[in-house]
Amino acid sequence: MPEMRAWPRRPRLVAGNWKMHKTAREGEALARELVELLRARPYTEIAVCPAFPALEAVSRALAGTGIHLGAQNLHPEPQGAFTGEVSGPMLAAVGCRFVVVGHSERRHGMGEDDATVARKLRAAQRDGLVPIVCVGETLPEREGGRTAEVLVRQVQAAYEGLDAGATAATVIAYEPVWAIGTGKVATPEQARESHQVVRATLERVVGAGAGERQTILYGGSVNAGNAAELFAENDLDGALVGGASLDATAFWKIVTAAAAGQRPGR
Ligand code: PGA
Fold first, then answer.
1. Catalytic pick among 28, 112, 141, 175
2. Which residues does ligand 1 sit against, CB inside 6 Å?
3. Which one of 22, 91, 161, 223 is most buried, by most CB atoms within 10 A?
4. Which H or E run includes 241?
5. pLDDT in tens, 186-212
């Protein structure tokens, strides 16, 4: 991940996914609250992903602060007759560094398949963005003992053909669908097991140490109360936070928990 600071371990990143919340003015106010809290200089990378109409105002509020801006989706084409869509170059131009790709609310709510997610990952990289690639099983898949199979399929479809350098310039978010917005957080053991499946798959598909190097976030009902326990798990390289990222104080507690034990690179 070239633009991130060097840590003695994989970088920790806490990214807030604001989903379909916050107007431009509300988003700007939240961003300003976060910038105030940033005076404490936590040892972790931070990103927020507002809805499209708030990107510009939030970008201005975050300029020069070190908090990264991300978007929640992009179209695979850089431009064209795609009514209602937004492209990577547009996101880069407004100051985005990250873009969420393949979130479960798009896979399951908007019919995005593995091939589309793979195209979006590549489009993001073509357009100079770091994709946060979401993978995760549904409850019936977990209960049917198919978690590993689903993760292998999703990771393989997204990363097949990428080299180790391109892979390292992405972030993966493991987000079990049953944990998103439900208050039912995965246990650290469940998260670790799934992260290890993702790492083993990357090692097989990409090779060259890609699995070990990969930054993998956990997402799904992360909040100020459970963050410390999750981050005690060494295999978690950060979190993708939905609901709790809409409140500056709650988000900041998660950032602080992620930063505990981190030291800047030597
Ligand atoms: P949640 O959402 O934290 O509200 O569960 C996480 C996500 O969808 O990224």
1. 175
2. 17, 175, 180-181, 219-222, 240-244
3. 91
4. strand 238-241
5. 999 999 999 999 999 999 999 999 999
